[in-house]
Amino acid sequence: MKILYVEDNRLDSDLTRRELKKSAPDFIMDTVTTQRDALSALENKRDYDLVLSDMRLPDGDGLAILTHIRGRGLLVAVVIITGQGDEETAVAALKAGAQDYVVKRDGYRDHLPLILQKALECYREASIRSSQPLRVLYAEPNASDVDLTKRHLTNFAPHISLEAVSNAPDVLQLISDQHHEHSCDAILLDYRLPGMNALEILKELRQVRKSDLPIILITGQGDEEVAVQALKLGTTDYVVKSPGYLYKIPSVLESAVHSAQLVREHRTVTQLKRQNELILNSAGEGIVGLDLAGNHTFVNPAAAGMLGYESSEMIGLHSHSLWHHTKIDGSHYHEEACTIYAACREGVVRHNQEDLFWKKDGTGFPVEFSLTPICEGDRLLGSVLTFRDITERKQAEEQLQDTLESLRKAVGATIQVMVSAVETRDPYTAGHQVRSSNLARAIAVEMELPQDKIDAIRMSGAIHDIGKMAVPAEILSKPTKLSELEFSLIKEHARRGYEILKDVESSWPLAEIVYEHHERMDGSGYPRNLKGEEICIEARILSVADVVEAMASHRPYRPGLGIDRALEEIENNRGIFYDNTVADACLRLFREKGFKLEGTQL
What mean pLDDT do residues 281-306 have? Predict the structure, then answer.
């Protein structure tokens, strides 16, 4: 930081220079002793960051230097040094645009580096703000004062634009227009206005209309008591019409507008915080904030209610020991093994996890929870846990499983009746179905299909030829080659089986599997010439099992061809008639795992 130090007391000057050299070696300081030398230095060397000036100088004062700097638009921060008992003058300097002041009392030099650094930062922030245009409603009955103020701002603060009115009704009329109010950043209000004085206008704007626009009162000399009353009524600041007062107006306006913005931002943040609290407290899900140690930092009413506590009694307590201390089997859940606690420490995201939480009264209940880390930049601060009680869902799932199990048993009993009916009419078909079903199930297991599909294949396999009940028995058991008509009747059994099963209530697609078990991958099968993925996987498996069992076993019109011949058929037509994956699984079962075509029971 480059500093111009204006001080006529040589001793003070030397002590200050030595102190700054020791405590702030990066500060570069030029020293002058008079106002004249200071102004000359500023004109000839315009690279100073800050002017540190004593208030009283042999040929002038610090205020004059400040006025010169602001009048010339020099981009320099200013700090005024004053003696004890002269603080009122220092405050005037602040209003005229100084960034700070220092009172010469014991030890003041110890704080000087920090004061100067903050003053420069404050000035730079204010410079950024001053680059933004300010729109000001100026209420002034004296036309010459209006003209003088406008010309001054044009020269020294061109970012400030004035809209002038001459009486109180015009002020109130313009402010009553909401559109106009939002196009105005501040009000510059002369005390003596026709119609109403400034205090009455202040009451109307602040107390009746609840306006939060910054209002700066301009008073004449001797009206300081009025200014104090105005401050009580809500004026943001005031300026006394004393010599050089126009130089104070820009900084006072900028400061007032900036302060109002900060107040609005604080109000907005407070409102958002309140809204967030209302949202969190109104949420039906339990919401818990946890620090890195797993202690509660926030507990919403829903979470506290589900756990049987008041929110206030949970804050600061450890989550694991409070509601996650015991496993489902009743054994102790060690903190080191706790997945929630580990996720808090490591910042791991967990979604839709199921677990058991424990209430204050010692009863447990099932929950579904999610855990999300809270971070500030790269720093992990904690986690937020959301959870909900899923007791009713678990009970509904258990009831559903019981219902499905009952349905499966009912379907199984129905299928067994169908198998018995087929066996009574055609023992050969019944044995073929059972063996095909067992092989199809083994293929599905080898392919690692879900249990639900394995069960569907086993059940449909046991009745896949149920449609043959519509075929005359003499055709089914005919020992000689079938005629074309007889074979066409046989081929109808897939469709007939579908018609029989389509209205059977089941969690498995039994009718569709039976309908498609004679389809082939290349579309050459029947009855609908489906191909590839158009055929469901259960039917593709059943078709392979059906062919293997039929070829390997005895038929009414020929002896069995043997398992080797059957496997050769599958291998040769793999990818043509039969699904590649299904064919490979079938071949592995027989050639590598020793599967046998046996059994007449499901």
Answer: 90
